[in-house]
Amino acid sequence: MRKGAHRDEAEHRQVQYLSSAAVRGRLGEVLDGQGYHLDHAELVDLQHRPGAGATGVFRVHVTEDESEELFVALTAEAVPEDSVLAAGEDGDATWSAWFHPHDPLLTGLALASDPATVAALWGRGGTLVDLQTISYRPLRRAVLRAVVTGVPGSSDASGDHDASGTLDISSASGRRTVFLKVMRAGLATRLHHRHTLLAAAGVPVPVVLGPPVADVLALEQGEGEVLANAIMANGARQVEPADVVGILDRMPADLLELPRRDAWSDRTPDYGHAAATALPDQARRIRSLVDHLQRQLTVTDRGPVVPTHGDFYEANLLVKQNRISCVLDIDGAGPGHRVDDLACFLGHLAVLPAVDRRYVHVDEALRRFHGYFKTGVDPAALACRSAAVALSLVAGARDSGRGDWQRSARQRLDIAESLLDL
Length: 422
Description:
Elements: H1 3-18, H2 23-33, E1 37-49, E2 53-63, E3 67-75, E4 85-90, E5 93-99, H3 109-112, H4 115-122, E6 127-137, E7 141-149, E8 155-161, E9 167-173, E10 175-183, H5 187-200, E11 216-220, E12 225-226, H6 227-234, H7 241-249, H8 268-278, H9 283-299, E13 305-308, E14 317-320, E15 323-327, E16 334-337, H10 338-355, H11 362-373, H12 379-392, H13 405-419
Helix pairs in contact: 8-9, 8-12, 9-12, 10-11, 10-12, 10-13, 12-13
């Protein structure tokens, strides 16, 4: 068996193990070693990173002197031994564990999760009234939202993302919302540099609240509502595709000096493997799609290297008065190809009905944005790269917390195939 195939099979078994009843014994041993007795365990997040391994986060109810709820992570990825608990071998892997928020590669997560520290560092004299985790990818990154009231001279629009990705807007005088991005060592400094470059070029990005602290970068909430709201409401028909592309036109040439990061389409085989792991009954179909995409990616014109956003889609764009008012998540900004930013937008847009059934205007929006986007790039390249982005989102359906995630994953796969006909 070739090396890659052996790796794929091993990671498939890791995913199965984390989802199985057998993992309870592993968790029990870890907790026993720390003086706890395991009463109940629930898998709340499962991340599979092709080529690295699988990680599961569990909500556990334990008893010591009294009942307590904790979050414990198990990973098959390579992590520093001195920052985790050895958890033995099983499911074709050597496992390591940690108690949340003490992620071994996100050393600032514990700091960003502590209300007293957050208030002292970023409260600006106000009172911290809410601190919530918005997203967490174990060993990769996390985003927390802190809400502070009683800030002198502060007034902002703050809101909550619901399961559909929409944003509920409210405002109150003296209320301030700060987002804390927790990153791997050194990456927060690079992100701070990107914010400085883009802001100087007139790209609307969130205001940074000083340099990073312990690899945590604090950002003011951007102005506006997520573009997803407008797409759900009416297909974002008041938002001009030219305005969306205009944001990319403003990306500064200085980005070309930064390290280049792979586009989603560059890792099509890996995302195909992740999709097949999530949907093993569709593995043959997925392999066929990957083979077709690889051929198309080779023969279509990607265009010149230009400054790019790197993760350009509706959840990372805010809108105010029908104009793009803020650009979020610029971690991947750097040299790349315009067609990949546009494909990222279309691929994410196309799968929205699989995320939430209330996205009933997506077909109309897809036709309108695609019709404009294809005038500036090779249409065939745009089609296959949009399909590759949609394929990259198939495995993510498993992490949605929905009981019917397999249906959503299959729907995303259907959409990926359909995008080839754009």
